[in-house]
Design a protein that fits this description.
Blueprint: H1 14-27, H2 43-64, H3 70-99, H4 112-122, H5 128-143, H6 150-157, H7 161-171, E1 174-177, E2 181-183, H8 190-193, H9 197-206, E3 209-211, E4 217-222, E5 232-237, E6 240-246, E7 251-257, E8 259-261, H10 263-269, H11 278-287, E9 293-299, E10 302-308, H12 310-317
Antiparallel strand pairs: 1-2, 1-5, 3-8, 4-7, 5-6, 6-9, 9-10
Length: about 325
């Protein structure tokens, strides 16, 4: 008998209570207080579930007008066991999501259709890693309603464990550039990320990235009213911060490389929980050092200035 692992309902915070109640409404079934616990299910609980399953089987046979033949009993047993497994999957995802709720979470703002759709998909998943991903999505939507779209749920349903691992690796190269999160898989960071061509193709087929083998994705900054101006690119990540400044020009392109996150990819990047990779961050910042660019970098308590000015570069050429 599979173990139930949900939390003690008596100790739930207000956002968690709301999420539990919203879940019950969404799936049309109760998440009983005595089903919600962290410890292994006691033998008495197992016996109770088996008894309830027997009652349910008898009722299903009676409603169908079927005599208790062996094949009918096996069919009903299969259906009951499948529903028990689905219920346990749902409660496992809910338990993991509760652990990630913030004090300011507002599950009441999650649309009914979103909850119904999410639990309809995640109830089929018994893999622990994928259950964690579903839980992260549910918690993110509770903490920041509107962050994840329903279209993204259909993509996650097609994720394998390997896909999830590869996407998390890729997100190690996500840095905020002038605000939005961008993937910075360029010539300097690609090998450090550790994915091969087939991995990128699979992620593109899933719809979370667009891939360009020539590394032609750029962020463009243009001056207003056709006037030349100094362009700034603020880059930040878990690993540190950097400021890239260019000389006066009307337009400048900052190359970010081979990968562009789709809308679904950007949404899932919020829950990817990619580890900090100082080596990737340093490689990307170093790759930006070129004539006409000034790169000021802050790594923990160390402030480093990389400067390659156009005039000095011209003198070296002479």
């Amino acid at each position: 008998m599979t173990k139930n692992v949900l939390v003690d309902v008596g100790k739930l915070s207000k956002p968690a209570e709301i999420l539990v109640n919203r879940t019950c409404d969404a799936i049309g079934a109760a998440v009983k207080p005595w089903q919600i616990k962290r410890i292994a299910q006691a033998n008495a609980d197992a016996s109770l579930i088996e008894t309830e399953a027997d009652i349910k089987k008898s009722r299903m046979l009676a409603q169908a007008g079927v005599e208790s033949s062996e094949i009918a009993q096996r069919a009903v047993s299969r259906l009951v066991q499948e529903e028990i497994q689905k219920q346990e999957n749902i409660e496992r995802v809910l338990s993991l999501a509760i652990d990630k709720l913030s004090a300011s979470a507002n599950p009441s703002q999650i649309p009914d259709d979103f909850l119904t759709d999410l639990f309809d998909r995640c109830r089929k998943t018994s893999n622990a890693d994928m259950q964690k991903m579903w839980a992260d999505i549910l918690a993110q939507e509770a903490n920041r309603p509107g962050t994840i779209s329903q279209a993204t749920l259909s993509i996650v349903e097609r994720f394998s464990r390997r896909d999830a691992e590869n996407f998390t690796k890729l997100c190690s190269a996500n840095f905020h550039i002038n605000g939005p999160s961008r993937n910075c898989c360029n010539h300097a960071t690609k090998d450090l990320i550790g994915l091969n061509y087939e991995d990128y193709m699979e992620l593109e087929a899933l719809g979370v990235i667009r891939y360009d083998g020539f590394g032609r994705f750029v962020i463009t900054s243009e001056a207003d009213d056709n006037q030349e101006s100094v362009h700034h690119f603020s880059i930040s990540g878990k690993e540190g911060d950097a400021l890239v400044t260019t000389e006066k020009s009307k337009k400048i392109n900052l190359s970010v490389g081979h990968v562009m996150l789709t809308r679904a990819g950007m949404e899932l990047a919020f829950v990817a929980e990619a580890p900090a990779r100082p080596d990737i961050f340093q490689a990307f910042i170093t790759s930006l050092i070129q004539p006409n660019y000034w790169v000021q970098q802050m790594l923990t308590s160390k402030f480093v200035v990389h400067q390659v000015a156009a005039k000095s570069a011209e003198k070296e050429d002479q």
